[in-house]
Amino acid sequence: MRKLLVVTTLLLASNAIAGVEEYKAAAAGFCDKMKMCISEKMEKEMGGNVPPQMQKMVDNMSSQMCAQYVPQMFEEKFSEHDDLIEKGTQCLTEMQSVSCSDFESGTTPASCKEMESMAKKAGLVE
Question: Where in the chain are the domains?
Fold first, then answer.
């Protein structure tokens, strides 16, 4: 019985770690999409002629914005909530399919709204 408990605990822990890794991969994909949309908008607004210094500044800003989607606190705060990790991964993955114009207007898939609701119910966000 004790051995079964140890094996089950290890399996659950490895599943949580795998879930967090999938979340991080989805967040990285979402960040790439966000950077692409920002670059597209900037190119459109500047007639396709973006000075290198400005592009570098925007790239740095985009990287800083992306840092919020893979926070260090994520593992501590959400790692006990597999359902949130799964729904968050789904949300970020679906956000990669949203068009840049929808992305800019704040359109979000239903999975993102569900994740936010779940996090509120769990008392993890306001």
Answer: 2-121
Please, are residues 91 and 109 in contact by the beta-carbon 8 Å criterion?
A: yes
Q: Are 23 and 85 in contact (CB under 8 A)?
A: yes
> Is the overall model pTM greater than 0.90, yes or no?
no
What gap in Å lies between CA 59 and CA 34, rounded to an integer? Answer: 11
* Selection from 50, 52, 34 nearest residue 103 by Cα: 34
The answer to whether the beta carbons of residues 38 and 101 sit under 8 Å apart is: no
**Alpha carbon distance 121, 126 (integer Å):** 9
Q: What is the DSSP string of 24-65?
A: HHHHHHHHHHHHHHHHHHHHHHTTT---HHHHHHHHHHHHHH
pLDDT digits (tens, 9 = 90+) for 23-53: 888 888 888 888 888 888 888 888 888 888 8
